[in-house]
């Protein structure tokens, strides 16, 4: 694994949300995770869910400097996904459906800590606020914060002056922030 | 800098962004970190901003993963089921019917329709992972387009087109999507918009597909006129065939 891309490039790519790097890792590791999940009482749908959650966890850990720069990211991502599936198989939710004897001999290598309740509430409020945000705001925020496009490039895409794009970005961000605060304080 | 809790100024927002996007010099970075240590309100605002920043990135990544997932090659299921013999007979009957229908179309096509089929292959679309496309909806529609889900792609692009009627990229792909979906008359409307745009990088390709749309509609003269304005090699070949 990981012969076509240098590990450092992969880590840099994850930090900068490089779409080529993210895509390559996704397409290389997913089939392996899918194979594992299907061999262990899962299906395509579950494989996709578990893999995407693992991908997010891996991406966050890289961004938060929790991963050594020489780590093999494909192996790391595969391990997170495998552990998440193992956790699921051992969870009460799964055991309700299947006898515990059916669970294969899997080893837990890394435990993911659950996010605390406050963080979950904040996230839920942000999620609700995001859904209320207009499509144009979402696109603008995506271009700036995820795709890391410059304001000049964004203004060209939006066909507006750079200052106007900048103001719009500010307003969109403030709207998302205040909406989420409102939702949180209203306990919606 | 005066900080009122609950409000982040545009300048403040930009400072947070520069820090998080690693756009500060080491001197600026140190100064900002010092500021965070001494100003509790600023620190609280920064933590809140960082959370929102991270949330937006995560939302975007989730959308991106859906796009990647569409590129995963279909693999066989974990187990192979044994189909009853009738199943294979049904497939064989289906293939036979398809061959018969294709043969009927082949022998009942007009010369223009035959010419269209000879020259038309859908535009392969833009690479959706290079960051050249402009937003989610556009990306998503491009994935649909590449998968041959033309109706879905058209619906999404039409939504965007209402906001940007003169966008050459949107006009071009709406045109090629309609044409790939067999709707030449609709394709003509959109492709014409791109052909009119002399600056567009899609102009020559749009001219070629517009000519093919005219061919399909039986409007050979209009196809010839459009092809004459294009420098594209494919257009020259098609023009030669139409004028011979």
From TrEMBL, chain A:
Residues covered by the RNA polymerase sigma-70 region domain: 29-92
Protein name (database record): Sigma-70 family RNA polymerase sigma factor
InterPro entries xrefs: RNA_pol_sigma-70-like, RNA_pol_sigma-70_dom, RNA_pol_sigma70_r2, RNA_pol_sigma_r2, RNA_pol_sigma_r3/r4-like, WH-like_DNA-bd_sf
SUPFAM superfamilies on file: Sigma2 domain of RNA polymerase sigma factors, Sigma3 and sigma4 domains of RNA polymerase sigma factors
Entry similarity comment: Belongs to the sigma-70 factor family. ECF subfamily.
Keyword set, alphabetical order: Sigma factor, Transcription, Transcription regulation
A GO biological-process term: DNA-templated transcription initiation
Keyword Zinc: no
Keyword Transcription: yes
GO molecular function, one term: sigma factor activity
Classification via Pfam families: Sigma70_r2
UniProtKB/TrEMBL annotation, chain B:
SUPFAM superfamilies: TPR-like
Protein name per its UniProtKB record: Uncharacterized protein
Keywords for the protein's UniProt record, in alphabetical order: Membrane, Transmembrane, Transmembrane helix
Annotated transmembrane regions: 86-107
InterPro entries: TPR-like_helical_dom_sf
Organism expressing this protein natively: Flagellimonas nanhaiensis
Domain of life, source organism: Bacteria
Pfam family, one: ANAPC3
């Amino acid at each position: 694994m990981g012969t076509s891309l240098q590990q450092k490039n992969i880590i840099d790519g994850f930090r900068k949300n490089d779409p080529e790097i993210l895509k390559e890792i996704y397409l290389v590791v997913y089939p392996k995770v899918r194979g594992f999940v299907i061999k262990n009482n899962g299906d395509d749908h579950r494989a996709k869910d578990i893999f995407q959650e693992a991908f997010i966890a891996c991406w966050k850990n890289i961004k938060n400097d929790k991963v050594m720069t020489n780590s093999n990211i494909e192996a790391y991502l595969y391990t997170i996904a495998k552990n998440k599936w193992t956790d699921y198989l051992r969870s009460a939710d799964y055991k309700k459906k299947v006898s515990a004897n059916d669970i294969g001999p899997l080893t837990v290598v890394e435990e993911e800590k659950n996010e605390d309740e406050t963080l979950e509430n904040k996230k839920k409020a942000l999620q609700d606020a995001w859904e209320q945000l207009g499509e144009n705001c979402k696109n603008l925020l995506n271009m700036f914060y995820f795709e890391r496009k410059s304001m000049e490039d964004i203004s060209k895409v939006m066909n507006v002056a750079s200052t106007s794009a900048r103001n719009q970005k500010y307003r969109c961000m403030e709207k998302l922030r205040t909406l989420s605060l409102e939702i949180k304080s209203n306990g919606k | 800098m005066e900080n009122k809790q609950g409000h982040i100024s545009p300048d403040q927002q930009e400072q947070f962004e520069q820090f998080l996007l690693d756009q500060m010099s080491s001197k600026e970075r140190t100064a900002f970190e010092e500021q965070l240590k001494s100003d509790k309100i600023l620190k609280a605002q920064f933590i809140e901003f960082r959370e929102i920043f991270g949330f937006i990135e995560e939302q975007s990544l989730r959308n991106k993963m859906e796009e990647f997932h569409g590129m995963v090659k279909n693999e066989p299921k974990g187990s192979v089921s044994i189909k009853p013999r009738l199943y294979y007979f049904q497939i064989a009957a289906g293939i036979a019917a398809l061959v018969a229908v294709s043969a009927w179309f082949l022998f009942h096509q007009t010369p223009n329709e035959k010419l269209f089929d000879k020259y038309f292959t859908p535009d392969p679309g833009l690479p959706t992972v290079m960051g050249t496309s402009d937003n989610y909806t556009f990306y998503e529609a491009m994935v649909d387009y590449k998968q041959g889900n033309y109706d879905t792609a058209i619906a999404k692009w039409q939504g965007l087109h209402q906001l940007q009627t003169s966008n050459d990229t949107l006009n071009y792909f709406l045109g090629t999507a309609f044409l790939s979906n067999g709707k030449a008359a609709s394709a003509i409307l959109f492709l014409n918009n791109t052909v009119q745009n002399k600056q567009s990088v899609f102009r020559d390709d749009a001219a070629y597909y517009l000519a093919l749309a005219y061919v399909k509609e039986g409007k050979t003269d209009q196809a010839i006129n459009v092809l004459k304005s294009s420098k594209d090699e494919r257009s020259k070949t098609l023009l030669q065939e139409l004028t011979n």
